[in-house]
Design goal:
alpha+beta, 6-stranded antiparallel β-sheet, 4-stranded antiparallel β-sheet, 4 helices, globular, disordered N terminus
Length: about 240
């Protein structure tokens, strides 16, 4: 009887541990439904101070902020390009979701450029958030891997679409070609921009490792541009 009771207790304990593991997979910060939908904009976990929207285009848009990788170092530059946003491909919004000071998820949202061309400041950001076609989220690394989740906008609600993992390595392309369903959707979104095809420009969302020891990272977008002599790779 004692042996039977011991077995029952062990099974119950394992059940509790398993439940916690499954629950932890879907929980990050103050939001518990990452496996169902993106956290709503009124959730307290969003870090609005770090939120930025940038028009991505080539030649570069006026006052565009971008990272450049050169001489084995990162450089953060503010580029003064053309005044007009007519050459914009899309509007990229970057923000973070906070669990604590050392653990933040990085998010990028892709919106049609037309959404915010005539809007400035915080209104441009809000328009980009509300009208983004999809959002990509990278969670803090675990065992040298990063969980990537993508969400698709359905009438203002960003519903979970797909999940996969990538290695925690600088400049890792986070959308594997043809190995996930989302790669086709992303390809369809990019193919809408005639300028990209005409200028032979590729657009690749990247994992950018800012400090490997501290596990600090963010998501960005790299443009591969061939200027006739060499390929340049600005990262936004």
């Amino acid at each position: 009887m004692k042996r039977l009771l011991l077995i029952v207790l062990v099974v119950c304990m394992l059940g509790i541990v398993f439940t916690d593991i499954v629950s932890a997979k879907a929980t990050f910060g103050s939001w518990k439904k990452w496996d169902e939908a993106l956290a709503p904009w009124d959730n307290k976990g969003w870090d609005w101070e770090s939120c930025r929207s940038t028009f991505i285009g080539f030649p570069y848009i006026r006052d565009t902020l971008l990272w450049l990788w050169a001489d084995e170092k990162w450089y953060f530059l503010k580029v003064n390009g053309q005044e007009s946003t007519d050459n914009a491909f899309f509007l990229l919004t970057r923000l973070s979701f906070i669990k604590d000071k050392k653990h933040q998820a990085s998010i990028i949202l892709f919106s049609p450029a037309s959404i915010g061309k005539d809007i400035e400041g915080i209104k441009c950001i809000k328009s980009g958030l509300d009208n983004a076609e999809f959002a990509i989220v990278a969670f803090p690394p675990n065992r040298e891997e990063v969980v990537i989740r993508v969400y698709e906008n359905e009438n203002g609600l960003f519903r979970f679409l797909e999940e996969w993992t990538v290695v925690f390595k600088n400049k890792t392309i986070i959308i594997p070609e043809k190995t996930i369903k989302f790669s086709q959707k992303y390809g369809d979104f990019i193919s809408e921009f005639q300028q990209l095809r005409e200028q032979n420009i590729t657009v690749s969302p990247l994992l950018i490792v800012l400090d490997g020891k501290k596990k600090e990272f963010c998501l960005g977008v790299a443009l591969e541009i061939f200027d006739g002599k060499k390929t340049i790779r600005p990262i936004f």
